[in-house]
Design a protein that fits this description.
The protein has about 120 residues and is of the alpha/beta class. The protein has 5 helices and 5 strands, in the order βαβαβαβαβα. Strands 2-1-3-4-5 form a 5-stranded parallel β-sheet, with helices on both faces. β4, α4 and β5 (about 95) form a beta-alpha-beta unit. The two termini are about 15 Å apart.
Length: about 120
């Protein structure tokens, strides 16, 4: 699942992840992401911090509390204090925008013990 309020980032992530064989669910805000988690089988969450309705910190804490899936925070907030807050919120990895698609693939592969439905 990709949760980001920027449609261009969601599109880029969708292309990169589909190329790797992932089925991609998209959410434009934290509230929509929470709904997807309740209704769909999500195996990996890529979460932006600055989103409307529910920010990425809150969403990350909720995911960690209720689901056993890897979380990658992908955000423009790259200060040490932001990274610390991300890890305290429960993220498994923290990538700063702009990012290289290979960086995302490496983080996703390392953190995701995905089922066969996510790979070709």
């Amino acid at each position: 699942m990709v949760a980001d309020d920027d449609p261009h980032i969601r599109e880029l992530l969708r292309l990169v992840l589909r190329r790797e064989g992932y089925l991609v669910y998209e959410a434009k805000d934290g509230g929509e992401a929470a709904g997807l988690l309740e209704t769909d089988s999500v195996h990996l969450a890529i979460v932006d911090v600055m989103m409307p309705v529910r920010d990425g910190w809150e969403l990350c804490r909720d995911i960690r509390e209720n689901y056993d899936i890897p979380i990658i925070m992908l955000t423009a907030r790259g200060e040490l204090v932001d990274k610390e807050q991300g890890f305290l919120s429960g993220t498994d990895d923290y990538l700063v925008k702009p990012f290289e698609p290979k960086e995302l693939r490496t983080a996703g592969s390392a953190g995701c013990e995905c089922g066969p439905d996510l790979h070709p």
